[in-house]
Amino acid sequence: MRPWPGVLQAFADRLPVSDRTPLLTLREGNTPLVPSVSIVRDLGGAELYFKWEGANPTGSFKDRGMVVAVAKAVEAGARAVVCASTGNTAASAAAYAARAGLRCLVVLPEGAVASGKLAQARMHGAAVASVPCSFDAALRLVREASEKLGLALVNSLNPYRLEGQKTAAFEILDQLGEPPQAVVLPVGNAGNITAYWRGFCEALEPGRRPRMWGVQAEGAAPLVLGRPVERPQTVASAIRIGRPASWEGAVRAAAESGGRIFAVSDEEILSAQARLATEEGLFAEPASAAAVAGLLRLAREGVRIEGTVVAVLTGHGLKDPQPAERAPQPVPVEPTVEALASLL
Question: Going by DSSP bridges, is the β-strand pair 103-109/211-217 parallel, antiparallel, or unpaired?
């Protein structure tokens, strides 16, 4: 059995690569599609799967697009890459830049990035700048810096990012053997839902494409409100974005697919995160759990959920460990079998 080659080689015929593009890889992609054993019971007759993107090399879906963006930056002769980030993009950019031998500059909103993600960027050798502003302001800053300093911008404004991220749609089709009826994703900067829809449109004829359901947090729901949110607030730091870069693509994906974009509360997100961990064995970060919270909200509202549904879990829970403090703490006991039995 040959090892998985990574996104650039596995999907070379569907990506904008050439014989000059370096075959950069950390063996990203090929993430499992895990069937639900518990949460599915809340959905009536649906069949639920989790696309577990936390299994990517840096623990999030960002690796799919980042490998393409950084490889194309190397091909173009870039000396360094730059990004603004709420965390996952920073971790991924730093890792792939290190692998490619490029410098990496990361700009983070001060105090708004989870510790696990910040640790990754630092350990991979990125130059990390913490700025007293929102993510949206940080993104404007790095766009200016990329132009003035001649750096390759690797945020989702980079078209190669979405090209890489669409490969998850191809994997879902290969893994299921047929299209799902619906795909539900968390929505922050909105690049992922845009990329998935692109992938499904490239692979499937109209009429066979899944509905796209996008879920935002109530405190950071510009697509639901129809206007930017100046001070987005949510426990789900990865989707704490008030002015999504891929706004139009996300709205189009939902409309063209017959889906919708809606919001859930932080309490719903944390409840879904806990259920994923304790009932499904999947420790996902809060932003990922927003997708499942959205499904559960639809079920409570009486929305008919039928056929095969895929919920995309975008990142591993260890990237954003602070919400896990809500979980039960270790219990001090005497060093006896009887004491241990009492815990069961």
Answer: unpaired
